[in-house]
Write a structure and sequence with these properties.
Two copies of one chain form a homodimer. Chain A is an alpha/beta fold. The first copy, chain A, contains 13 helices and twelve strands. In chain A, the strands form two sheets. A six-stranded parallel sheet of chain A has the order 2-1-3-4-5-11, with helices on both faces. Chain A has a six-stranded mixed sheet with strand order 7-6-8-9-10-12, with helices on both faces. The relative contact order of chain A is 0.11.
Chain lengths: ~350, ~350
């Protein structure tokens, strides 16, 4: 709150601003909405000065009623503290921003009840579309199909009938990560896998694919939350044993970071005693000690695809699935040389 | 987008829903707005079913025009990928949610031009108030004072005339962290400090306070971005030397994580060769290897205070500053015993 008394609100119109600044009302709109046409810097400064002096507040609610568009997208993530979802959010914001849309970011903390309430809240705020990133495919997804709001499911591993979906081929990615550990000579690769609605999750399937194709018995598995603490607890169960496995594949960076802490407490060295590869490949994996070898999700491409489906839907194209291929980036934790930091 | 054709939009009213569900229009509102009065689960299910069948979409824009409130707060953060700001965002959302407000979270990536545009965008979307967390106090802050929208500056280290401000006593916190390193016997404590608008930043001042009070010469200092990469580069400059300092205070968790990576590459062991303490104390510090000793910002209390100032402003109280005291949590990186993980 400013100590200077603000001018009275709601009485100043766009026309007043245009008159004061000596421009057309269209130019005022371009400045306020940051588009669609460019405005010369000096003119924009004059318009902003007029807005400031007159105390004009452009009214998005009135505009939304008039145009039927709020130029606002909703993004629901399960956990903003997870660097994967923070990275997706930044990428979605940047793409949406370039296309003149703001992003209303909401965070469900993986609670299906909160997720439903947030979606209802976004719909009632008249967002032009919703991007839902969820770890469960329950009531919230059903809501999206009945609420009649354009939507995209982001970070799904497979097609979902009737939905626009964008994700990665997690099964192939996990398989590549586990095959790499097997190439390093490991014959017992443990798995830490997050909880999801699926009976056999794609990353679990990829882990099985790799070990079975190599003629190895299935390694030990622990299900745990997609958190640092989840990875820590799971690694304690897997590796606090007389003959622990010699390798680990973790279904998220955060789980791997937690596992590194557990292995350190158990006196096991990475990669000498236990080699580690994880899934996600955020900057947190890059900066872990030791640096984590990771199967990287291409968050920028995924975000671009999701936003474009909402903002520029292609006529006559039925809802479909786009799957990106995650790439293994080797580093120190699997026994490879250190990967140089990104420029 | 659902494969089932959604019912026609915009023609169904709250009264239609009430009639279909056999309840009053007030009960429909309670379900749609998740309050203020509770609704029995069976009744709420009936109302949701009516909303679904009729294709009703409650119109927040119309309500906003009617009531003058959007029940929406804007939160501007400089970097959502920084776990400190992710933690603040989660805490702000939770407090706002309990008070019936949604949070429009936007991310400036520390770009002052983007920051100004985002604030303008939030104002034009008629948010009830803006919480601004910035690393610079420039044009965006001036905008807030002229735009006439209630606002709080969150994560400021000192009072700003005419503004509601909430933060921590960073000088005292940094001093406590550096004093602890001196108690461990270190006489040369390097500082990695983020860029800010201030000539001598509060954390830098606290570092000076501690070394000077102990009669020690000022240690070496490097200014670097508040990022993992910033900390890495700064530590390379500070410690790739014939006689490197024996201790480091870093102005953020992320910088400290980057410094750990650099020290590891330089073959310096933490805490044996270099003791480290940092400022922020997020979960990332807890799970670093080795675990980081950190001066923790109480993000939950800070968020509560900021949201309450916007949602329940106290009559007749002038804008003022509330400063929380950050607490040192010792861990392995300073040479203390490992701190047990939070329950």
């Amino acid at each position: 709150m400013s100590s200077t008394t603000p001018p009275p609100r709601g009485q100043v119109t766009r026309s007043d601003v245009a008159r004061y600044a000596g421009v057309s009302t269209a130019v005022v709109s371009y400045v306020v909405n940051a588009g669609p046409r460019p405005v010369a810097a000096a003119t924009a400064t004059r318009v902003r000065e007029a807005i400031r002096v007159l105390g004009y507040r452009p009214n998005a609610s009135a505009r939304a009623l008039r145009t039927g568009s709020t130029r606002m997208l909703g993004l629901v993530v399960p956990e903003i503290g997870n660097p994967l979802f923070a990275g997706l959010a930044v990428a979605v914001e940047q793409t949406a921003g370039r296309l003149g849309h703001a992003v209303l970011l909401v965070n469900s903390e993986s609670d299906p009840h909160i997720e439903r309430r947030l979606i209802q809240s976004l719909v009632s705020r008249q967002v032009d579309g919703i991007i839902l990133s969820t770890v469960q495919y329950g009531a919230a997804v059903v809501d999206l199909s009945t609420l009649g709001v354009p939507s995209v499911l982001l970070n799904t591993f497979e097609a979902r009938e009737g939905f626009e979906t964008v994700g990665v081929d997690a099964r192939a990615g996990a398989r590549a990560g586990v095959e790499h550990l097997i190439e390093h000579g490991h014959t017992r690769v443990a798995l830490i896998i997050g909880h999801s609605g699926d009976a056999v999750e794609a990353r679990e399937q990829g882990w099985l694919d790799a070990t079975r194709a190599a003629g190895l018995p299935d390694g030990p598995l622990v299900r745990a939350p997609f958190t640092r603490r989840g990875g820590y607890d799971a690694a304690m169960r897997l590796f606090d044993a007389p003959v622990p496995p010699s390798a680990l594949f973790a279904s998220s960076d955060m789980q791997a970071v937690g596992a590194l802490r557990a292995l350190d407490e158990l006196g096991l060295r990475v990669p000498d005693d236990v080699a580690v590869v994880c899934f996600d490949g955020t900057e947190e994996a890059d900066f872990a000690t030791p640096q984590l070898s990771a199967v990287r999700q291409p968050v920028e491409e995924m975000a671009d695809e999701a936003v474009l489906r909402l903002v520029s839907p292609r006529e006559g194209v039925a809802p479909h699935h786009v799957s990106f291929t995650p790439l293994l980036r080797t580093g120190r934790s699997c026994g490879c040389p250190v990967r140089p930091l990104d420029a």
